[in-house]
Amino acid sequence: MRVVIFLLIFCGAVFGGEKPRIITLDWGVAEILEFLEVDPIAMAEKQSFMLWGGGLGSGANTLDLGLRNQPSLEMIIALKPDFVLLPSFFAGHEKTISKYAKTRIIDVYKDGNLEDNLNLAVLEVAKILDCEERAKILLAKNNEFFEKKKKELENFATPVLVVQFIDAAHIRIYGANSLYGVVLSKLGVQNLAPSNLSYNLWGIASAHVSALYEVEQGAKLVIIEPNRVDINSQIASNGIYKNLQILQNRAQIEAVWSAGAWLSMQKFANLLSEILKNETNLVNSKISQNLEISPNLANLSNSPNSKISQKSANE
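^ thats the sequence. predicted structure below, dont judge the formating
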């Protein structure tokens, strides 16, 4: 009882009576709230969210409700939220929680186009918060962000495949309707994820590492960390790896939460664009060097002392 009273006093002092008092059991919605610049008064598994979200956080004053599938009902009652937002996955809690607070089901990852679903979820949450106009402005700024990133990569023409190694024999492949796939599309980068795989609601398919043989040569392989497979060691000792040409053009990228929302997508876009821009600059540098060498070769071939005859030059 003392804990309950403390929570009521603490949250009343911090949040006051004007700000919406929102609790979320869903990490996707937690990220949407952060996108909308609103801190929930509490969320489920906050510390894990901050870890998997790679730097995302829901405010220092946001309390942790415990497990997503077993949130603390006592805390929910004590905090007296205006709304508790939860996904369909945890809809079993709605009947009990709705006795003490208003509830709303918000799904980010569901059947349909991820980008459309995400924008719809943002507007749904914004309507609950009574900040729809601000949400539209933030979504417009989000589009501007991706347009700018796309322009930065307009000279990058190499197709990309995004994977994560589960172990030495298996990988996760991120399809067109995954978080990473949506980012690739918005950046104007071709995604080589095979269309014949079975992708889940998060746009992810599991496959044997030999599936990489089906990827066209010259593609860029982007590997999501953490990567528990020593690829160089596998190339040296594993026949499957040894002949995989795509491994010769690979890059690792730090973990970005693959079930996130626009903030996670922006982070991935920033990380990926740096890798791809560096590769583009390297290619352009080599082309520039070749162009500088060519006139010298031409002058050399015209010199009477040159060992390179006009005939051999024409050949």
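The radius of gyration is 26 Å.
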